[in-house]
Amino acid sequence: MTILFPIIYSAALTYLVWKAFKVMSNGWNISGTNKNLNNSTFKQKKYTIHPELLDKSGNITEEELLTVRFSNDNDSSLEEKGSSTD
User: Does the reported pTM lie above 0.70?
Assistant: First the structure.
């Protein structure tokens, strides 16, 4: 048993290192072949629609949205406008 453990351990380590280099080489190949990210397959969408903005049928809701602005207690712009922070 004492001889079997180092053999299994080194085989597993060799396999994991080989897989890691294979994954990294795929990344290097992608970045090396296409320097222009605009033409790559990794394009980002122009906008993201958050699920909470959709109604039950999957369409963007027409409801008025509530927005909240948090400010610092030391925000001098509120004092200049004459608003209270209560």
Answer: no
